[in-house]
């Protein structure tokens, strides 16, 4: 949900405590390998921070979590400087977020834009960059901090879906379907895409690790990251990583993002067959909602849809803000958890006369439904949670069960919270 208008001083205070809390989660996750909250909870707080910084851009600071691209390159690997930085994406969680996004782009460009969007399933793996010289793969790297990544050439070369040599497509770009199998490939080609593991392969590897009494991985993304950053590429080769290409960085004459996908296929890359071009925001919403239901049928994990202005002129002119391009956004599938604030606690009198405390909250999307109320069951529950009015809380809604406050984020308190009597 969009934050409502808050005063500058309130925003300042809230921004600082959100940054501190998000940084704490990040540190625990990336440095200590400990996950304090789910991705959904940290995404939810980051979105609140993003909205507040959008309201008061003068409060954006270079050390804000909204300005960073995760991860520092590991010392064990050679460093690779990315000529064009690898950006991250801002998140959208609702249709309203999507219309706001298009409006932001139009406001920035000072013009109406054609609603032509290229839609890509957002894979939950890690980004990889491949550099080809005269058609030959010479370097593979991770994102790192976006500017400097790690050289993982040996490891990514073990992936069957990564061509070691480009297929020639003739001298014309974008290549025509009937192009002769000519000699020409660009002198240099930089391609980006997602390295990932199928669910089946993830389970197989984890089972083997467990048999050997070794540490297993929480999800395919972590195992992918661990496999790409292996010092022994024989281990990487045993784990059948996969790769979908999604972007050409080099100018090969592409005018549209959809051109890039066609060209990638001609060069011999694997691209996601479910990606689509649509010509309205309604089409974006439909695609996203359909895939939210169908995602279980895929043999890999996706957590949303990447929505990109198909016209590269729009995408390029829109530039970037902080760590993210303006011309693309990640429209996430609905999470089963989110954060919001408790505005009040009311007592509900049941038919039998039983008194049940109910939390009234700022509206928040959980599992695709807007939630404003959560039962607190009884007064012991309030004590257990340590809940006060004004608190930021985690709301969970597993499956179709009723929403529940599962946690109070006490670090986000201002001191103005009120005890529930
Ligand atoms: S970006 C010009 N497409 O999401 C934008 N990113 O990028 C080109 N990710 O960590 C498309 N699947 O690794 C794009 N189909 C996809 C993606 C994707 C996953 C990841 C990417 C990065 C983050 C932001």
Can you put this structure into words, describing what you see?
The two termini are 29 Å apart. The chain has helices at residues 8-31, 39-55, 95-109, 153-156, 199-211, 220-228, 233-238, 257-267, 281-294, 312-318, 379-385; strands at 79-81, 91-92, 117-123, 126-133, 136-142, 148-150, 188-196, 242-248, 276-278, 302-309, 320-321, 324-325, 328-332, 337-349, 355-366, 369-375, 392-396, 404-408. The longest helix has 24 residues, at 8-31. By secondary structure, it is α+β, with helices and mostly antiparallel strands. The strands form five sheets. It has a five-stranded mixed sheet. Helix content is 30%, strand content 26%. The protein contains eleven helices and 18 strands.
Helix and strand layout, with pairings?
Elements: H1 8-31, H2 39-55, E1 79-81, E2 91-92, H3 95-109, E3 117-123, E4 126-133, E5 136-142, E6 148-150, H4 153-156, E7 188-196, H5 199-211, H6 220-228, H7 233-238, E8 242-248, H8 257-267, E9 276-278, H9 281-294, E10 302-309, H10 312-318, E11 320-321, E12 324-325, E13 328-332, E14 337-349, E15 355-366, E16 369-375, H11 379-385, E17 392-396, E18 404-408
Parallel strand pairs: 2-13
Antiparallel strand pairs: 1-6, 3-9, 3-10, 4-5, 4-7, 7-8, 10-13, 11-12, 14-15, 14-17, 15-16, 17-18
The protein binds 2-(butylsulfanyl)adenosine (IVH).
2-(butylsulfanyl)adenosine (IVH) binds at residues 88-89, 120, 122-123, 127, 194, 246-247, 306, 308, 328.
